[in-house]
Amino acid sequence: MALDWMNSLAGLLVGLVVGVTGVGGGALMTPILVLVFGVSPQTAVGTDLLYASITKMFGVGVHHNHGTVDWQVVKRLAWGSLPAAALTLAWMSFSGANRVKSGLIIDMVGVMLIVTALGILFKDQLQGLGRKIRVTNSDQFKHVQPVLTVLGGVVLGVLVTLTSIGAGALGTVMLVYLYPLRLTPSKLVGTDLAHAIPLAMIAGLGHLTMGNVDYALLLSLLVGSIPGVLIGAVISTRAPLALIRYAIAIVLGAVAVKMLMM
User: pLDDT for 152-165, tens place per residue?
Assistant: First the structure.
């Protein structure tokens, strides 16, 4: 399989963003593949899911070594997301939804990008709301925290399987609300990355069985993304992320408009 160095460069840039913020794998890569490289939406989603799962393994290794992964929170999310992903894949396969029209997939991706951008922009406000509820209703909040985390995982499992978007951006937004005191910024990134790996892997393998993965494209992306995510993960343990988050949100909003107008 021949490498395409433009694809590798795209992988490097997206891998860097994912490593630094935990955000941007599907939200950036899927639109890039569709709009810039002309990949079909179905193939873009399937290839991106496997790309994301492999890329994030390297980033999580760095975070684990720095102690910035909360594995209990990862398990709670996975209890919801992994069964939801498996059921969504089964529905896609048996209903023929995996052959859904490209235009509908593009619209779904566009809507998810808008939701993701809004989540990133209002992340601090959600964290403030979660902190207020956590402090004023501490016992009640801690009682429902595990259940809400599992339910959040269910939502992520469905959305990520259908569009490849949400594991990073929407996952972090959910976590800042549900764990406003427990997760520091670096732990937030590491925990979200750790959960995204099994979710993207299961969803990606499901798309693989449906023929929605381009192996040559996957290899080219990984050549760039693996060093990118390693560098980004090291940066994330010591860098302020607010400016980067806002820049990503603006880019995602612009891309969403472009995709919805196609």
Answer: 999 999 988 888 77
HSE at residue 170, side-chain half, CA atoms within 13 A, is 25
6 three-state secondary structure = helix
Tell me the backbone φ, ψ of residue 200, rounded to 5 degrees. Answer: -65, -35
> Residues 109, 261: contact at Cβ < 8 Å?
no
pTM strictly above 0.90 = no
**Helix 138-163 × helix 102-121 angle, to 10°:** 150
Q: Which residues of 146-184 are buried (b: 16+ CB within 10 A; e: fewer)?
A: eeebbbbbbbbbbbbbbbbbbbbbbbbbbbbbbbbeebe
- What size, in residues, is the chain? 262
8: three-class secondary structure by DSSP: helix
The DSSP secondary structure of 157-176, one letter per residue, reads: HHHHHHHS-STTHHHHHHHH
Worst-scoring range by mean pLDDT, 77-86, 199-208, 243-252?
243-252
